[in-house]
Recover the amino acids of this structure.
């Protein structure tokens, strides 16, 4: 299935300035020249595929950090939900509450069906140190496509 995402590899990633569930401020500009960023959007905390995806990123987080890469998860859930989710599943990377889908809108992680469900689409971006999109993964039900794609893309950037 062809991805409906129009932010393609090679495009400049939209800037963001958000606050994570732990209160840490995250700005894309702060990573420029220093770290790659895996910015992944997911529909909802505590759902089956979202939990599998978060745990997959959790399991490879140290490896990604070792390759100068930060992971940031984004959903419509609030900071309290993110805190409970992170604690229950041992997630140590930042989770961002985006209830108005402002960040999701910039990254085209919204859609008709997900909008009806009050959530965002499952889409993952790998942003390289220069601020360009190096990978885009878009699969609603296959977390492994996102995880494997990130791993392969980051390996190619190293």
């Amino acid at each position: 299935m062809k991805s409906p995402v129009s932010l393609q590899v090679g495009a400049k990633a939209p800037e963001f300035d958000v606050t994570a569930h732990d209160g840490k401020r995250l700005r894309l500009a702060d990573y420029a020249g220093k770290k790659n960023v895996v910015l992944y959007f997911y529909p909802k905390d505590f759902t089956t595929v979202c939990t599998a995806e978060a745990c997959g990123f959790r399991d490879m987080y140290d490896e990604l950090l070792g390759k100068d890469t930060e992971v940031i998860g984004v959903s419509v859930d609030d900071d309290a939900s993110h805190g409970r989710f992170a604690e229950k599943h041992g997630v140590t990377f930042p989770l961002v509450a985006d209830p108005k889908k402002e960040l999701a809108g910039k990254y085209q992680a919204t859609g008709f069906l997900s909008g009806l469900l009050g959530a965002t689409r499952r889409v993952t971006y790998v942003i390289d140190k220069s601020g360009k999109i190096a990978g885009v993964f878009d699969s609603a039900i296959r977390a492994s496509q996102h995880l494997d794609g990130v791993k392969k893309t980051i390996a190619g950037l190293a």
About this structure: The domain at 17-157 is CATH 3.40.30.10 (Glutaredoxin). The radius of gyration is 14 Å. DSSP finds six helices and seven strands in the chain. The first strand starts at residue 17 and ends at 19.
